[in-house]
Design brief:
By secondary structure, the chain is an all-alpha fold. Helices cover 49% and strands 2% of the residues. It has three domains: 35 residues, no CATH class; 124 residues, Peroxidase, domain 1 (Orthogonal Bundle), CATH 1.10.520; 128 residues, Peroxidase, domain 2, CATH 1.10.420. The chain contains 16 helices and two strands. Strands 1-2 form a two-stranded antiparallel sheet. The structure holds protoporphyrin IX containing FE. This is Peroxidase.
Length: 352
């Protein structure tokens, strides 16, 4: 498992982050709004400009994008996800993580789905992804069915966005409206994936800045990390926490050590919380009990700025589920390719 070791080494190094121009422009618009009085022009701006620019990068996305060109799309995706989650409940979690890792590297553009070839190095084998992200076959299956129904029409990026929402809902999460119209990248960047995906060994300040670089707030970080209410982690990624850290419930550390030995067992899996196939608020209850699995999980409740929100979600499952849905809609809109940019891939693994 040398790749996982490299992943850890990589994550101990600081990463550069970039700010997206789209978020700068929306910030400027908000500043102008703040300066405006309650005049006619303010109302015009509020009613007509905000819907187009106020949500940042999703300006050109629309829930009805395929209403005429591929009306069966939502049903095809939902049925396929239902089959996949019935076969293996963890798949809902795996697809959610796939989408997070897509969106965080140059936007939600399906770049993570591209296979490496002799002449192309993509994101699949970046340290945070290799032997770790999963669910590619499920996306392939959906794409095949969508192509059969609506040839060369629907992007892989939109399929992944819809599949993610359906997976979360199938495991008990609150639904959200998926705006559509993303196009697929013709490129991918392994180095951007290595540098921009957050590390499980990061501290709170670093996690906050990696989300800020994507236009997401500290609250977004805390609620989106609640994605860890479903799914599992490999032992190597939480080993140092259970053996060396002090901000951890001792009986929890003992339990985890049983399947994550000090030496070896690096790919053994452990659940993030006690209900890894239920989208509930047990993740936050675990954090309050100092039972966070990853170092980065416990950073959200370690006498810092996010303690209060973690406590709120630990006491209010409905608030978490509602806020998670809203934050997912926001994350889903990071820097999409639209219009004539990118392409509609025929095969999600290959550029046309
Ligand atoms: C805040 C920074 C985050 C860090 C450092 C982080 C790190 C990790 C790590 C190390 C794993 C285990 C990977 C493995 O065992 O191979 C994991 C799994 C997972 N992550 Fe995150 N994550 C973060 C945020 C998120 C977000 C924002 C989401 C979704 C909105 C998410 C969803 C998931 C899911 C669902 C899994 C389980 C996947 C499965 O079981 O296949 N994570 N994460």
């Amino acid at each position: 498992m040398h790749n996982l070791t490299l992943y850890i080494d990589c994550f101990f190094n600081p990463s550069p982050y970039t700010t997206k121009p789209s978020f700068i422009s929306s910030a400027l618009i908000f500043m102008k709004l703040a300066m405006a009085s309650l005049s006619y022009s303010f109302i015009v701006v509020t009613l007509f400009i905000i819907p187009f620019f106020g949500c940042g990068a999703n300006a050109q996305l629309s829930p009805n994008f395929y209403a005429r060109t591929c009306p069966s799309l939502p049903t095809i995706v939902r049925n396929a996800m239902s089959q996949a989650v019935t076969r293996e409940a963890r798949m809902g979690a795996s697809i959610l993580r796939l989408f997070f890792h897509d969106c965080f590297v140059n936007g939600c553009d399906a770049s993570i789905l591209l296979d490496d070839t002799a002449t192309f190095t993509g994101e699949k084998n970046a340290f945070p992804n290799q032997n770790s992200v999963r669910g590619f076959e499920v996306i392939d299956t959906i794409k095949t069915r969508v192509e059969a129904a609506c040839n060369a029409t629907v992007s892989c990026a939109d399929i992944l966005a819809l599949a993610t929402r359906d997976g979360v809902v199938l495991l008990g999460g609150t639904s959200w409206t998926v705006a559509l119209g993303r196009r697929d990248a013709r490129t991918a960047s392994q180095s951007d994936a290595n540098n921009q995906l957050p590390s499980p060994f990061a501290n709170l300040a670093t996690l906050i800045s990696s989300f800020a670089a994507k236009g997401l707030t500290a609250s977004d970080l805390t609620v989106l990390s609640g994605g860890h209410t479903i799914g599992q982690s490999q032992c190597l990624l939480f080993k140092t926490r259970i053996y060396n850290e002090t901000n951890i419930d001792p009986s929890f550390a003992t339990t985890r050590k049983a399947t994550c030995p000090a030496s070896g067992g690096d790919t053994n899996l452990a659940p993030f919380d006690i209900t890894p196939t239920r989208f509930d608020n047990n993740y936050y209850k675990a954090l309050v009990a100092r039972r966070g699995l990853l170092h980065s999980d416990q950073e959200l409740f370690n006498s810092g700025s996010q303690d209060a929100l973690v406590r709120t979600y630990s006491n209010n499952a409905a608030a978490f589920s509602r806020d998670f849905a809203a934050a997912m809609a926001k994350m889903s809109a990071i820097s999409p390719l639209t219009g004539t940019n990118g392409e509609i891939r025929k095969n999600c693994r290959l550029v046309n």
